[in-house]
Description:
By secondary structure, the protein is α/β, with parallel strands linked by helices.
Amino acid sequence: METTIAAIATAPGMGAVGMIRVSGPDAFARVSDCLQGGRRVERMKERYATLTKVVDTQGLVLDEVLVTCFHGPRSYTGEDTVEIACHGGVLVMRRVLERLLDVGVQPAGAGEFSQRAFLNGKMDLTQAEAVMDLISAQTELAMRAAHEQLQGTLGDASESIREDILGIAAHIEAYIDFPDEDIDTDTGAALLGRIRSVGSKIQKLLQTAEQGRILREGVRTVIFGSPNAGKSSLLNRLLGYDRAIVSDIEGTTRDTVEEVLNLQGIPVRLIDTAGMRQSEDRIEQQGVKRTRDQLETADLILEVVDGTQPRVIHLSDEEIGRRHHIVVINKADLELHADWSNVAGVKISCTEEVGLDTLINTIAHELSMGAGEWGGHAVAINTRHQACLKRAKVALEAAEFTLEDGQGAEFISVELREAMELIGEIAGRIDTEELLGEIFSSFCIGK
Protein backbone atom coordinates (compact mmCIF):
# COMPACT_ATOMS: atom_id res chain seq x y z
CA MET A 1 0.00 0.00 0.00
CA GLU A 2 1.27 3.50 -0.91
CA THR A 3 2.53 5.51 2.05
CA THR A 4 1.39 9.01 2.97
CA ILE A 5 4.18 11.56 2.65
CA ALA A 6 4.74 15.15 3.76
CA ALA A 7 7.33 17.88 3.20
CA ILE A 8 7.80 21.62 3.52
CA ALA A 9 7.08 22.83 -0.02
CA THR A 10 8.31 26.42 0.29
CA ALA A 11 11.92 27.58 0.13
CA PRO A 12 14.09 27.27 3.26
CA GLY A 13 14.32 30.33 5.47
CA MET A 14 11.99 32.83 7.12
CA GLY A 15 8.92 34.24 5.38
CA ALA A 16 5.41 35.47 6.03
CA VAL A 17 3.83 32.19 4.96
CA GLY A 18 5.15 28.66 4.55
CA MET A 19 3.41 25.64 3.06
CA ILE A 20 3.52 21.96 3.98
CA ARG A 21 2.18 19.44 1.48
CA VAL A 22 0.76 16.06 2.51
CA SER A 23 -0.19 13.38 -0.04
CA GLY A 24 -1.29 9.77 0.11
CA PRO A 25 -4.20 7.46 0.97
CA ASP A 26 -4.28 8.56 4.63
CA ALA A 27 -3.58 12.26 4.07
CA PHE A 28 -6.98 13.45 5.31
CA ALA A 29 -7.01 11.19 8.37
CA ARG A 30 -3.44 11.96 9.44
CA VAL A 31 -3.85 15.73 9.11
CA SER A 32 -7.16 15.49 11.03
CA ASP A 33 -5.25 13.79 13.87
CA CYS A 34 -3.19 16.98 14.24
CA LEU A 35 -6.03 19.52 14.24
CA GLN A 36 -7.64 21.08 17.28
CA GLY A 37 -10.84 19.30 18.30
CA GLY A 38 -10.20 16.44 15.87
CA ARG A 39 -11.61 18.48 13.02
CA ARG A 40 -12.11 16.26 9.95
CA VAL A 41 -10.37 17.33 6.76
CA GLU A 42 -12.59 15.16 4.54
CA ARG A 43 -15.60 17.25 5.64
CA MET A 44 -13.98 20.50 4.61
CA LYS A 45 -15.04 22.11 1.35
CA GLU A 46 -12.65 20.92 -1.34
CA ARG A 47 -10.21 23.49 -2.75
CA TYR A 48 -11.27 26.13 -0.19
CA ALA A 49 -8.93 27.30 2.57
CA THR A 50 -10.24 26.51 6.05
CA LEU A 51 -8.94 28.32 9.13
CA THR A 52 -8.02 25.93 11.95
CA LYS A 53 -5.24 25.13 14.45
CA VAL A 54 -2.53 22.46 14.58
CA VAL A 55 -1.99 21.14 18.11
CA ASP A 56 0.60 18.88 19.72
CA THR A 57 -0.12 15.65 21.65
CA GLN A 58 -0.98 17.69 24.77
CA GLY A 59 -3.47 19.85 22.89
CA LEU A 60 -1.22 22.91 22.91
CA VAL A 61 -1.50 25.05 19.77
CA LEU A 62 1.53 24.87 17.48
CA ASP A 63 0.17 27.29 14.88
CA GLU A 64 -3.00 28.74 13.42
CA VAL A 65 -3.12 27.54 9.82
CA LEU A 66 -5.14 27.44 6.61
CA VAL A 67 -5.90 23.91 5.40
CA THR A 68 -6.88 23.16 1.79
CA CYS A 69 -7.83 19.66 0.70
CA PHE A 70 -7.78 18.12 -2.77
CA HIS A 71 -9.53 14.81 -3.38
CA GLY A 72 -7.74 12.34 -5.63
CA PRO A 73 -7.50 12.04 -8.54
CA ARG A 74 -8.24 15.80 -8.84
CA SER A 75 -4.94 16.81 -7.28
CA TYR A 76 -1.34 17.42 -8.30
CA THR A 77 -0.26 13.90 -7.36
CA GLY A 78 -3.53 12.18 -8.24
CA GLU A 79 -3.88 11.19 -4.57
CA ASP A 80 -5.73 12.75 -1.64
CA THR A 81 -3.65 15.83 -0.89
CA VAL A 82 -3.65 18.45 1.86
CA GLU A 83 -1.80 21.75 1.78
CA ILE A 84 -1.22 23.44 5.15
CA ALA A 85 -0.36 27.15 5.03
CA CYS A 86 1.52 28.02 8.24
CA HIS A 87 3.31 31.10 9.46
CA GLY A 88 6.64 31.12 7.68
CA GLY A 89 9.00 30.79 10.61
CA VAL A 90 11.58 28.01 10.38
CA LEU A 91 10.76 26.62 13.84
CA VAL A 92 6.97 26.80 13.32
CA MET A 93 7.03 24.82 10.07
CA ARG A 94 9.46 22.28 11.47
CA ARG A 95 7.24 21.68 14.53
CA VAL A 96 4.12 21.24 12.34
CA LEU A 97 5.99 18.82 10.07
CA GLU A 98 7.29 16.87 13.08
CA ARG A 99 3.71 16.63 14.38
CA LEU A 100 2.64 15.05 11.09
CA LEU A 101 5.52 12.59 11.25
CA ASP A 102 4.48 11.70 14.82
CA VAL A 103 1.06 10.48 13.58
CA GLY A 104 2.56 8.19 10.95
CA VAL A 105 3.21 10.36 7.91
CA GLN A 106 6.52 9.62 6.14
CA PRO A 107 8.97 12.36 5.08
CA ALA A 108 8.91 12.87 1.30
CA GLY A 109 12.02 12.37 -0.77
CA ALA A 110 13.31 14.77 -3.42
CA GLY A 111 10.79 15.01 -6.26
CA GLU A 112 8.49 12.39 -4.73
CA PHE A 113 5.30 14.42 -5.22
CA SER A 114 6.06 14.92 -8.93
CA GLN A 115 7.08 11.28 -9.26
CA ARG A 116 3.72 10.22 -7.86
CA ALA A 117 2.01 12.61 -10.30
CA PHE A 118 3.83 10.85 -13.14
CA LEU A 119 3.10 7.35 -11.87
CA ASN A 120 -0.58 8.25 -11.42
CA GLY A 121 -0.84 9.52 -14.99
CA LYS A 122 -1.19 13.21 -14.10
CA MET A 123 1.74 14.15 -16.32
CA ASP A 124 4.24 12.50 -18.63
CA LEU A 125 7.97 12.43 -17.95
CA THR A 126 8.74 15.52 -20.05
CA GLN A 127 6.17 17.49 -18.05
CA ALA A 128 7.67 16.28 -14.78
CA GLU A 129 11.11 17.46 -15.93
CA ALA A 130 9.58 20.79 -16.95
CA VAL A 131 8.47 21.36 -13.33
CA MET A 132 12.11 21.56 -12.25
CA ASP A 133 13.05 23.62 -15.32
CA LEU A 134 10.31 26.10 -14.39
CA ILE A 135 11.53 26.35 -10.79
CA SER A 136 15.14 26.93 -11.87
CA ALA A 137 14.39 29.24 -14.86
CA GLN A 138 16.46 32.42 -14.68
CA THR A 139 15.09 34.30 -17.70
CA GLU A 140 11.77 34.90 -19.48
CA LEU A 141 12.74 32.67 -22.42
CA ALA A 142 13.77 29.82 -20.12
CA MET A 143 10.48 30.18 -18.25
CA ARG A 144 8.52 30.22 -21.52
CA ALA A 145 10.26 27.08 -22.77
CA ALA A 146 9.55 25.32 -19.46
CA HIS A 147 5.88 26.37 -19.64
CA GLU A 148 5.59 24.98 -23.17
CA GLN A 149 7.05 21.67 -22.06
CA LEU A 150 4.83 21.64 -18.96
CA GLN A 151 1.81 21.97 -21.26
CA GLY A 152 2.89 18.73 -22.96
CA THR A 153 4.36 20.17 -26.17
CA LEU A 154 7.40 17.90 -26.19
CA GLY A 155 5.41 14.89 -24.96
CA ASP A 156 2.88 15.38 -27.77
CA ALA A 157 5.65 15.77 -30.36
CA SER A 158 7.43 12.59 -29.24
CA GLU A 159 4.14 10.67 -29.07
CA SER A 160 3.32 11.77 -32.63
CA ILE A 161 6.68 10.40 -33.80
CA ARG A 162 6.12 7.16 -31.90
CA GLU A 163 2.72 6.72 -33.55
CA ASP A 164 4.26 7.33 -36.98
CA ILE A 165 6.83 4.58 -36.34
CA LEU A 166 4.07 2.33 -35.01
CA GLY A 167 2.16 2.76 -38.27
CA ILE A 168 5.22 1.81 -40.31
CA ALA A 169 5.93 -1.14 -38.03
CA ALA A 170 2.34 -2.38 -38.40
CA HIS A 171 2.75 -2.30 -42.17
CA ILE A 172 5.96 -4.31 -41.93
CA GLU A 173 4.36 -6.79 -39.51
CA ALA A 174 1.75 -7.56 -42.18
CA TYR A 175 4.50 -8.91 -44.42
CA ILE A 176 5.85 -10.99 -41.54
CA ASP A 177 2.41 -12.53 -41.03
CA PHE A 178 2.22 -13.39 -44.72
CA PRO A 179 5.72 -14.63 -45.57
CA ASP A 180 4.78 -15.51 -49.16
CA GLU A 181 4.25 -11.82 -49.91
CA ASP A 182 7.39 -9.84 -50.72
CA ILE A 183 7.68 -6.07 -50.24
CA ASP A 184 7.32 -4.83 -53.83
CA THR A 185 9.24 -1.86 -55.21
CA ASP A 186 6.40 0.65 -54.94
CA THR A 187 5.54 -0.36 -51.38
CA GLY A 188 9.22 -0.31 -50.41
CA ALA A 189 9.63 3.21 -51.81
CA ALA A 190 6.55 4.40 -49.88
CA LEU A 191 7.86 2.90 -46.64
CA LEU A 192 11.26 4.50 -47.20
CA GLY A 193 9.57 7.86 -47.64
CA ARG A 194 7.66 7.42 -44.38
CA ILE A 195 10.82 6.40 -42.49
CA ARG A 196 12.71 9.42 -43.84
CA SER A 197 9.81 11.71 -42.91
CA VAL A 198 10.01 10.45 -39.31
CA GLY A 199 13.78 10.96 -39.39
CA SER A 200 13.21 14.59 -40.41
CA LYS A 201 10.88 15.13 -37.44
CA ILE A 202 13.52 13.69 -35.10
CA GLN A 203 16.20 15.89 -36.62
CA LYS A 204 14.01 18.97 -36.10
CA LEU A 205 13.75 18.18 -32.39
CA LEU A 206 17.49 17.46 -32.17
CA GLN A 207 18.21 20.94 -33.53
CA THR A 208 16.73 22.44 -30.35
CA ALA A 209 19.22 20.64 -28.09
CA GLU A 210 21.74 23.50 -28.03
CA GLN A 211 19.03 26.05 -27.29
CA GLY A 212 17.76 23.78 -24.52
CA ARG A 213 21.22 23.49 -22.97
CA ILE A 214 21.75 27.24 -23.05
CA LEU A 215 18.30 28.05 -21.63
CA ARG A 216 18.92 25.65 -18.74
CA GLU A 217 22.64 26.19 -18.09
CA GLY A 218 23.42 29.56 -19.68
CA VAL A 219 26.05 30.59 -22.22
CA ARG A 220 29.44 29.82 -20.64
CA THR A 221 31.21 33.14 -21.16
CA VAL A 222 34.83 33.33 -20.06
CA ILE A 223 36.34 36.78 -19.50
CA PHE A 224 40.09 36.47 -19.88
CA GLY A 225 43.19 38.47 -20.78
CA SER A 226 46.38 39.93 -19.31
CA PRO A 227 46.52 41.20 -15.73
CA ASN A 228 45.10 44.72 -15.21
CA ALA A 229 43.31 44.68 -18.58
CA GLY A 230 40.00 45.36 -16.82
CA LYS A 231 38.43 41.89 -16.67
CA SER A 232 36.97 42.26 -13.19
CA SER A 233 35.86 45.83 -13.95
CA LEU A 234 34.02 44.55 -17.03
CA LEU A 235 32.29 41.85 -14.97
CA ASN A 236 31.14 44.45 -12.46
CA ARG A 237 29.89 46.84 -15.16
CA LEU A 238 27.93 44.13 -16.99
CA LEU A 239 26.33 42.96 -13.73
CA GLY A 240 25.61 46.49 -12.55
CA TYR A 241 27.21 46.02 -9.14
CA ASP A 242 30.65 45.29 -7.65
CA ARG A 243 30.99 41.50 -7.63
CA ALA A 244 34.75 41.11 -8.18
CA ILE A 245 37.60 42.92 -6.40
CA VAL A 246 39.23 45.54 -8.64
CA SER A 247 42.82 46.59 -7.95
CA ASP A 248 45.86 48.00 -9.78
CA ILE A 249 47.90 45.18 -8.27
CA GLU A 250 48.55 42.43 -10.83
CA GLY A 251 47.29 38.98 -9.88
CA THR A 252 44.44 40.21 -7.67
CA THR A 253 42.03 37.70 -9.24
CA ARG A 254 43.42 34.23 -8.55
CA ASP A 255 40.29 32.12 -8.69
CA THR A 256 37.31 32.19 -11.01
CA VAL A 257 34.32 34.38 -10.14
CA GLU A 258 31.00 33.33 -11.69
CA GLU A 259 27.66 35.16 -12.02
CA VAL A 260 24.64 34.97 -14.36
CA LEU A 261 23.52 37.90 -16.54
CA ASN A 262 20.10 38.01 -18.22
CA LEU A 263 20.93 39.14 -21.75
CA GLN A 264 17.85 39.64 -23.94
CA GLY A 265 16.16 36.66 -22.30
CA ILE A 266 19.15 34.32 -22.51
CA PRO A 267 21.14 33.45 -19.34
CA VAL A 268 24.79 34.35 -19.89
CA ARG A 269 27.08 32.75 -17.31
CA LEU A 270 29.95 35.24 -16.88
CA ILE A 271 33.20 33.76 -15.55
CA ASP A 272 35.94 36.18 -14.50
CA THR A 273 39.38 34.54 -14.55
CA ALA A 274 42.93 35.13 -13.41
CA GLY A 275 45.17 37.21 -15.67
CA MET A 276 47.27 35.30 -18.20
CA ARG A 277 50.98 35.76 -17.53
CA GLN A 278 54.10 33.89 -16.47
CA SER A 279 54.48 33.90 -12.71
CA GLU A 280 56.67 32.26 -10.07
CA ASP A 281 53.81 32.47 -7.57
CA ARG A 282 52.43 28.92 -7.18
CA ILE A 283 48.94 30.15 -6.26
CA GLU A 284 48.83 32.48 -9.27
CA GLN A 285 50.05 29.60 -11.48
CA GLN A 286 47.09 27.57 -10.26
CA GLY A 287 44.79 30.48 -11.12
CA VAL A 288 46.19 30.64 -14.68
CA LYS A 289 45.69 26.88 -15.02
CA ARG A 290 42.04 27.28 -13.98
CA THR A 291 41.68 30.02 -16.56
CA ARG A 292 42.85 27.64 -19.29
CA ASP A 293 40.49 24.94 -18.00
CA GLN A 294 37.59 27.38 -18.23
CA LEU A 295 38.57 28.39 -21.76
CA GLU A 296 38.36 24.77 -22.91
CA THR A 297 34.66 24.57 -22.01
CA ALA A 298 33.64 28.12 -22.99
CA ASP A 299 30.81 28.87 -25.42
CA LEU A 300 31.93 32.48 -25.72
CA ILE A 301 35.35 34.03 -25.04
CA LEU A 302 35.52 37.72 -24.13
CA GLU A 303 39.19 38.59 -24.56
CA VAL A 304 39.73 41.81 -22.61
CA VAL A 305 42.83 43.79 -23.59
CA ASP A 306 44.41 47.02 -22.36
CA GLY A 307 44.16 49.24 -25.42
CA THR A 308 47.04 51.44 -24.23
CA GLN A 309 49.50 48.52 -24.23
CA PRO A 310 51.09 46.52 -27.09
CA ARG A 311 49.18 43.51 -28.30
CA VAL A 312 49.91 40.15 -26.63
CA ILE A 313 48.48 37.01 -28.24
CA HIS A 314 47.45 34.48 -25.56
CA LEU A 315 45.34 32.16 -27.74
CA SER A 316 45.98 30.93 -31.25
CA ASP A 317 43.19 30.54 -33.81
CA GLU A 318 43.45 26.76 -33.28
CA GLU A 319 42.92 27.15 -29.52
CA ILE A 320 39.89 29.37 -30.08
CA GLY A 321 38.50 26.84 -32.56
CA ARG A 322 34.81 27.18 -33.39
CA ARG A 323 33.93 28.97 -30.18
CA HIS A 324 32.53 32.48 -30.26
CA HIS A 325 35.30 35.03 -29.65
CA ILE A 326 35.06 38.80 -29.12
CA VAL A 327 38.02 41.09 -28.50
CA VAL A 328 37.12 43.80 -25.97
CA ILE A 329 39.52 46.76 -26.21
CA ASN A 330 39.35 48.46 -22.82
CA LYS A 331 40.60 51.95 -21.81
CA ALA A 332 39.34 53.41 -25.10
CA ASP A 333 39.00 56.79 -23.33
CA LEU A 334 42.81 56.98 -23.41
CA GLU A 335 45.18 57.04 -26.38
CA LEU A 336 45.19 53.56 -27.92
CA HIS A 337 48.39 51.76 -28.91
CA ALA A 338 49.02 51.45 -32.64
CA ASP A 339 48.81 47.64 -32.41
CA TRP A 340 45.02 47.89 -32.02
CA SER A 341 44.32 50.18 -34.97
CA ASN A 342 43.49 47.32 -37.37
CA VAL A 343 42.13 44.78 -34.87
CA ALA A 344 38.41 44.00 -35.08
CA GLY A 345 37.04 44.49 -31.59
CA VAL A 346 34.64 46.43 -29.39
CA LYS A 347 36.13 49.57 -27.85
CA ILE A 348 34.96 50.28 -24.30
CA SER A 349 35.97 52.15 -21.18
CA CYS A 350 35.06 50.55 -17.87
CA THR A 351 35.98 53.68 -15.90
CA GLU A 352 33.87 55.98 -18.10
CA GLU A 353 31.26 53.26 -18.77
CA VAL A 354 31.50 53.87 -22.50
CA GLY A 355 30.75 51.23 -25.16
CA LEU A 356 29.01 48.73 -22.86
CA ASP A 357 25.74 48.86 -24.81
CA THR A 358 27.68 48.21 -28.02
CA LEU A 359 29.38 45.22 -26.36
CA ILE A 360 26.05 43.79 -25.20
CA ASN A 361 24.59 44.15 -28.71
CA THR A 362 27.71 42.54 -30.18
CA ILE A 363 27.39 39.57 -27.81
CA ALA A 364 23.71 39.20 -28.73
CA HIS A 365 24.55 39.31 -32.44
CA GLU A 366 27.45 36.87 -32.04
CA LEU A 367 25.18 34.36 -30.28
CA SER A 368 22.26 34.94 -32.71
CA MET A 369 19.96 35.97 -29.87
CA GLY A 370 17.31 37.55 -32.06
CA ALA A 371 13.66 36.64 -31.58
CA GLY A 372 13.71 34.76 -34.89
CA GLU A 373 16.34 32.35 -33.55
CA TRP A 374 14.99 31.96 -29.99
CA GLY A 375 11.49 33.32 -29.57
CA GLY A 376 9.74 30.76 -31.76
CA HIS A 377 11.05 27.60 -30.14
CA ALA A 378 8.20 25.75 -28.47
CA VAL A 379 10.45 22.80 -27.64
CA ALA A 380 13.95 22.80 -26.17
CA ILE A 381 15.12 19.26 -25.45
CA ASN A 382 17.53 18.29 -22.70
CA THR A 383 20.45 15.87 -22.71
CA ARG A 384 18.29 12.84 -21.92
CA HIS A 385 15.85 13.62 -24.71
CA GLN A 386 18.77 14.19 -27.08
CA ALA A 387 20.31 10.79 -26.30
CA CYS A 388 16.98 9.00 -26.91
CA LEU A 389 16.38 10.84 -30.18
CA LYS A 390 19.90 10.19 -31.47
CA ARG A 391 19.67 6.47 -30.78
CA ALA A 392 16.20 6.32 -32.31
CA LYS A 393 17.51 8.06 -35.43
CA VAL A 394 20.31 5.49 -35.72
CA ALA A 395 17.75 2.67 -35.43
CA LEU A 396 15.60 4.27 -38.16
CA GLU A 397 18.64 4.66 -40.42
CA ALA A 398 19.41 0.97 -39.87
CA ALA A 399 15.81 0.09 -40.82
CA GLU A 400 16.12 2.28 -43.90
CA PHE A 401 19.35 0.55 -44.96
CA THR A 402 17.83 -2.90 -44.35
CA LEU A 403 14.79 -2.03 -46.46
CA GLU A 404 16.93 -0.67 -49.30
CA ASP A 405 19.13 -3.75 -49.14
CA GLY A 406 16.11 -5.98 -49.67
CA GLN A 407 16.55 -7.94 -46.45
CA GLY A 408 13.68 -9.69 -44.65
CA ALA A 409 10.88 -7.79 -43.00
CA GLU A 410 11.82 -9.32 -39.63
CA PHE A 411 15.09 -7.36 -39.53
CA ILE A 412 13.32 -4.10 -40.39
CA SER A 413 10.75 -4.75 -37.67
CA VAL A 414 13.46 -5.19 -35.03
CA GLU A 415 14.99 -1.78 -35.83
CA LEU A 416 11.59 -0.08 -35.87
CA ARG A 417 10.66 -1.57 -32.51
CA GLU A 418 13.92 -0.30 -31.02
CA ALA A 419 13.27 3.20 -32.39
CA MET A 420 9.74 3.09 -30.99
CA GLU A 421 10.96 2.12 -27.51
CA LEU A 422 13.58 4.87 -27.50
CA ILE A 423 11.04 7.53 -28.48
CA GLY A 424 8.69 6.16 -25.82
CA GLU A 425 11.35 6.71 -23.17
CA ILE A 426 11.19 10.49 -23.72
CA ALA A 427 7.69 10.86 -22.30
CA GLY A 428 7.99 7.82 -20.04
CA ARG A 429 5.82 5.49 -22.10
CA ILE A 430 8.52 2.91 -21.45
CA ASP A 431 10.47 3.45 -18.26
CA THR A 432 12.81 1.79 -15.80
CA GLU A 433 13.11 2.34 -12.07
CA GLU A 434 16.70 3.50 -12.53
CA LEU A 435 15.67 6.15 -15.07
CA LEU A 436 12.95 7.53 -12.80
CA GLY A 437 15.29 7.60 -9.82
CA GLU A 438 17.88 9.57 -11.77
CA ILE A 439 15.39 12.17 -13.01
CA PHE A 440 13.47 12.85 -9.79
CA SER A 441 16.58 12.86 -7.57
CA SER A 442 17.43 16.31 -8.94
CA PHE A 443 14.13 17.80 -7.71
CA CYS A 444 13.82 19.89 -4.57
CA ILE A 445 12.14 18.44 -1.47
CA GLY A 446 8.42 19.23 -1.48
CA LYS A 447 8.05 19.07 -5.23
